[in-house]
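seq:
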Amino acid sequence: MADQASSSITINAKPADIMGVIADFPAYPDWAGFIKKAEVVEESDDGRARHVHFVLDAGVIKDDYVLEYEWDDVSKVSWHLVKGGVLKGMDGTYALSDAGGGATKVDYRLAVDLKIPMIGLIRRKAEKVIIDTALKELKKRVER
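struct:
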């Protein structure tokens, strides 16, 4: 799963506010267009989500899966696939950094591997659509 897609966006908010929206998994269906369901199934000792169950409908990619999360305070969160149907692998990261003037740069990287054959170009395009949509919707949600 070496191929990955990435994109960035600047959000007019503090990292803690952005990470608060990222960590509010039950609210994902309200703003993350491809996510139809998100529920925390296990928390880590610090009370943050460790395992989250998702139902995804991103057109080309539809699945019911569980991700495991690793949190680095309010600067970074990473995840990887624990269990999936169509998905064979999913690794992703949101990395937040100061953009000046009270704004935060959000870098999003995503790599997806499917059990069904898919031309790499089509898979990367689907990853890019998922990333760009997620970043735009995250920005709208945080800045509203």
